[in-house]
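During the second half of the funding period, the structural biology subgroup turned its attention to how the target accommodates small molecules. The most pressing case was copper (II) ion, which had performed well in the primary screen but for which no bound structure existed. We therefore specified the complex as follows and requested a full 3D prediction, including the ligand pose.
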Amino acid sequence: MIARDKSQASLLQVFKAVLWSFLGIRRRAEHEADAIRLRLPQVVAVGIMCAALFVFTLIFVVHLVITRATT
Amino acid sequence: MAHSTADAAVAGHAHDHHDHAHDDHAHAAPSGFMRWLTTTNHKDIGTMYLWFSLTMFFVGGVLALGIRAELFKPGLQLWHPEFFNQLTTMHGLIMVFGAIMPAFVGFANWLVPLQIGAPDMAFARMNNWSFWLLPPAATLLVVSFFVPGGATAAGWTLYAPLTTQMGPGMDLAIFALHILGASSIMGSINIVVTILNMRAPGMTLMKMPMFVWTWLITAYLLIAVMPVLAGAITMTLTDRHFGTAFFNAAGGGDPVMFQHVFWFFGHPEVYIMILPAFGIVSHVIPAFARKPLFGYSSMVYATSSIAILSFIVWAHHMFVVGMPAAGVLFFMYATVLIAVPTGVKVFNWLATMWRGSMTFETPMLFAVGFLFVFTMGGFTGLICAIAPIDLQIQDTYYVVAHFHYVLVAGSLFAMFSGAYFWLPKWTGHMYDETLGKWHFWLSIIFFNVTFFPMHFLGLAGMPRRIPDYNIQFADFNMLATIGAFGFGLSQLVFLYTVLKCIRGGEKATAQVWEGAEGLEWTLSSPPPYHSFEVPPQVK
Ligand SMILES: [Cu+2]
């Protein structure tokens, strides 16, 4: 493990970057900060987590719709 | 501009360096056919990929004209229905696997090393091997028309149980797809390794040109899904010859499982065929709007998110096959949501053009044409994604119209745009602008004449992949056939323009287009055979 220094992103920052990227939008200043502090493995890991989260959210919404429709 | 002069100086130095370093073994270089057979040079291989795909584009195009000729009038005139099915199947297979995919690999071979400042691809010999796998595979596909029973007629989607009932043409197609898949996987590994390891000093990931980014992501998609296709067709092969029953219902297998596996490959495949097109357009529009790409980082993010989402929408191709209501809703919602990052891209291209000082040379014409017509294909895609509507239009000409708007007006127009954009760089000559403009206008008009009426035909209920049709569809079909022949003939203008450009013409400068940016424009036109032997410095 590389020692944690100031330039490294917190988990929350990685999440924020990934979630914005799902929409496909990012502010230039924040992007430039991302480019410095984000590390690729982090982004990939959080990206996969968010994709899973996205799938579960969809399943949940579908579940809501289905149960509403059948009761 | 100081920046690019510095780069040019470095590039010039690289050229000098090449002059003496390579004279040592230049005498050993084979010539004629052996040069092309043994080459490990990314430019040679890129050129071969592009010529191969152009050839296959014409082969697939002739098959398409065979389809349209039969559909000119209702009733059966030219072909037996069995042969008509072979035409539709092989048109799809050859265009997808023989034309579009290798063409983008050709662009990647030429451009990725030039754009990241690398001397060549990472695995130069494997690069040669990935190309030379293609001609045998193409031969298998074409030869399969002449074996007993003819070519496979199961549709390009290769659905069971049709595939378990076909003659030996099916086996040839399976073998050809295996070879093409192996070639794609090797090409992708090569591209990923080149991009991740061979960038010039200072070229961080977030400074990479968009074409390189889109190909990096496309390559990961290919590595992820080509083995899935290989697995599915191998299971088909063992069902046919080795007594298994994966997809054979009579033996307890499940034909619907094939569809799930196929479309798990098939939907990401759609993005494999369109993401590099997005990359090309993201170079052409800024160059001719004379403005940097609006929202570069959001383009990168949108591309990644399209790639991830592309894995969770596959069953939108199967609404009619039958699945639980929850499944239908899930795939419908997911599909509609994937339109968001795609819309972001369209927005970014429009914003790039906004208040730019635009000129409309042929590459820009094709890019703007792409934008208009691809967006229409995107919208009809959304319409198809709505399950209740899809139940009506599944397997009709509406779907045929939709995916030709995406693949012809999307992928193909972007490739034409890129070809005209980089031809002067590749050949050292300017192409004939008048001919290029003719090519564009003929293409976009005949494209719409061919495919726009198909929306109406589909909504009126004309089924696809059937050689005959009811009389009420006659007028639009006749129009579509006229358009198709016009479109096909217009492509000869492209062939002629390219040949003319290779043979001569006004000398191209290194910069070629005043608004173009990137390392490839710092090299002479054509670039030296060995470029960037000393890596350029990127600031
Ligand atoms: Cu799809």
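Two results from this model are relevant to the next phase. The helical segments of chain A are 11-23, 28-37, 40-70. Residues 64 and 70 of chain A are 10 Å apart (CA to CA).
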